[in-house]
Amino acid sequence: MPELPEVEVVRRGLDTWVRGRTVCDVEVRHPRSIRRHEAGAADFAGRIVGRTFTGASRRGKYLWLRLGEPDECPEQELAALVGHLGMSGQLLVESSDAPDEPHLRVRFRFEDEGPELRFVDQRTFGGLAVADMVDDGAGGQVPWPVAHIARDPLDPLFDDAAFVRRVRATDAGIKRVLLDQTVVSGIGNIYADEALWRARIHGERPASRLSTAGVRDLLDHARAVMAAALAEGGTSFDALYVNVNGQSGYFDRRLAAYGQEGLPCPRCGRPIRRSAFMNRSSYFCGTCQRAPRGRPAPER
DNA sequence: CATAGATCCTGTATGC
DNA sequence: TGCATACAGGATCTAT
Q1: pTM of the entire structure?
Q2: What phi-psi label fits residue A237: left (phi over 0), alpha (psi between -120 and 50 degrees) or beta?
Q3: DSSP letter at A189?
Q4: Rounded CA gap, A45 and A37, in Å?
Q5: Contact in structure between A160 and A216 (CB atoms under 8 Å)
Q6: Which active-site residues of A does the annotation give?
Q7: What kind and span of H or E run contains A82?
Q8: Cα dihedral value A111, A112, A113, A114, nearest 10
């Protein structure tokens, strides 16, 4: 479940259901799902078996389970199991009696013989790896594959002013900048379109041509829409996007633009339009969100 | 350097 | 029914 609210729903579920539990077995059923763990499946399993998950953390769309060090100081966390759900990844906590999912990729069993943790991923764009922790430059630590990811707008340490400066320093279209996880993390195609609709900004407007107040307003809307989605358990159109217990969120009922092609704009009533963007789609109101001059959005 | 495009996968929906 | 095409919520690598 790809964007920030959905990943946060999963993080909370992991923190509730696997924190404090010790892994006794790791079964890698598809090598592609651990391709970021370059040392391979045996090393991956060897670095987790016998360890205790001491908590679940998240930055943007990445999440990780911190691994305690049983042999030395139990409080020490030198590594973590890092995950990214990609387009179709799920982390499910369920009984060992439950039949294997068709796209079950990695299974974790626990010493307590309670419910197991499964990584299920249809398209295998997601993946897991064990990675050492590095300093994040603000007194904290993150696994090294996450070090290049910016903080997300719901992070208390997110720097609004620095974000505004960075956005206004680039000439790319504002939607592309919103999706750049090194600028701001957690925003994907749904919440980019929703935030732009709320802020009445067309995604192809060059970021450098937005005012400081305009960028701040857009950031506020991104924050608000993701917080609202989180409060409803995230957005899901189908069974692919579920929490660790297999349940879907309800925010799809609140979407104003994304996926609403042809339906009336909730603000002005004109039909929501769709245009091609980065091998997928952008949804927007052609009336509320004026296209930049000289660059009409191609209908498809 | 910054930016745009192609690519990795599998499944579902739609149209001929 | 069969087959082809378009599309799906992402990140990363490559080319320009």
Answers
A1: 0.96
A2: alpha
A3: H
A4: 10
A5: yes
A6: 2-3, 61, 280
A7: strand A77-84
A8: -130
Quote the DSSP letter at residue A158. -
User: What pLDDT, in 10s, does the model give residues A29-58?
Assistant: 999 999 999 999 999 999 999 999 999 999
Q: Which residue places its CA closest to the C1' of nucleotide B7?
A: A279
Among all protein residues, pick the one whose CA is nearest to the C1' atom of B12.
Answer: A238
A258 to each of A183, A185, A272, how far by Cα in Å? 22, 19, 9
Contacts of A169 (CB under 8 A, 6+ apart): A208
Digit-coded pLDDT (tens) for A115-151: 999 999 999 999 999 999 999 989 999 999 999 999 9
Determine contact, residues A32/A121, Cβ cutoff 8 Å.
no
What the block records as the tokens of A144 is 């090294």
At A45 the three-state DSSP class reads helix
The domains located in chain A, with CATH, are 4-146 (3.20.190.10), 160-285 (1.10.8.50)
Q: How far is the CA of A33 from the C1' of C14 (A)?
A: 23
In order, the DSSP letters of A214-253 are HHHHHHHHHHHHHHHHHHTT---SSTTS--TTS----GGG
pLDDT in tens, A232-280: 989 887 788 889 888 899 999 899 999 999 999 999 999 999 999 988 9
Provide the CA A237 to C1' C1 distance, Å, integer. Answer: 29
List residue ranges whose Cβ is under 7 angstroms from nucleic strand C.
A 1-3, 6, 60-61, 84, 86-87, 123, 125, 145, 148, 179, 181, 188-190, 234-238, 240-241, 278-281, 300
Rounded to whole angstroms, the Cα distance separating A89 from A250 reads 19
Nucleic acid strand C: bases within 7 A of protein CB: 7-12
Residue in A103, A67, A84, A96 with CA at minimum distance from that of residue A11:
A84
